[in-house]
Prior knowledge:
Blueprint: E1 5-7, E2 12-18, E3 23-27, E4 29-33, E5 48-52, E6 55-60, H1 71-82, E7 89-94, E8 114-119, E9 123-129, E10 153-161, H2 165-175, E11 179-183, H3 186-189, H4 193-199, E12 210-216, E13 222-228, H5 236-245, E14 249-252, E15 271-277, E16 294-295, E17 303-306, E18 313-317, E19 330-336, H6 338-345, E20 348-353, E21 357-359
Amino acid sequence: MFTKKVDKNNLNASIKIHSSRHTVQFFRFFLYKLPNSGKEFPSEGLRYMYLDSTNRSWSAGMKLINESGGAVQKTLEQLYKLGKSGDVAYVLYNDQSPKSIVNKAVGNEYGHTKGVVLLDRSQGFWLVHSTPHFPPVISEGYSYPHSGIHNGQSFLCVTYPYKEFDSIGEQLILNHPECYESSVPETFETDLPTLFKLVSGGTIDTPPWNRQTDLTSLGGTTFSSFAKGGQFEDDLYAAWVAPTLGSNLLVQFWPNSVGVLPSNCSLPQHVNNIKEISFESHHGNAQATSHSGFSTHVDHSKWCVSDQGAYTWICVGDINRNRGEEHRGGGTVCLNDQEVWKSYRQLVVKYEDCADGCKL
């Protein structure tokens, strides 16, 4: 169902992909970059918690997110090694592109969406994340931006077979992301026309303005991808994800923006805003103990989780609950898994009740 972990110390699940000239290594994980509370070491904002198929409860990463050998660095290392080889296709997109790219201010017509796609002719990965100005362009190599240190950030990396990337391309075209660096060689165009259209600036100009599709990972796990365009003009979670999944949702998003939407209990499936997160029950490693609890005001991650155990959905994405982003593209990728759901659900300490303020 999942990939096999090969390095317990680095907490990296991996598989190898053999192409004609290279061996490409891809990964599959959920990762939570912790905020920097400012109470201890400066490196605190570079620590992360991690789970994968063989370790479905949170564990502290043995590396910092900016260090060689960590889960994100090991994943993106393949991009920096092989990106210019011509044997792979890749797309880097972010509504806040790296600061080294001049004259790249992104208007609201682009999606509020962040991620990386890398594949060869056999398989590849889709990394969905929330970090501004990340990752760097290929010529600069891997680093983690200072702007991503203070607040919490979310990452979901899934390995997919080659055939799924045409559907992923269709999802991304609907999102209309700012693709700040990309390469889709002509050898990929016949099989993956939507990915080629994406990097060529193509858009979708007719409804429907939202699309849900199931994606099957290389290991056979089904993920459900939700993508909306700006013309959808509604909240991703309350108007679509919650009723589609048939589940009440607790949503973590950046609450410091303008026009934040309150918790919504007007529909059969309720959507409640998370207010406080805690890893207290996951303190198997002393590196995480300083994060017994933190406010969502220092958490830039974007994810949601089913409220009750009758539904076991966990979704990681890139869009917030505010009025402005009702009119921007974005999405989320969901997994129905009891153990992963439990790991995320236990993080929620407080959420905003629709009737009477915060609820424990």
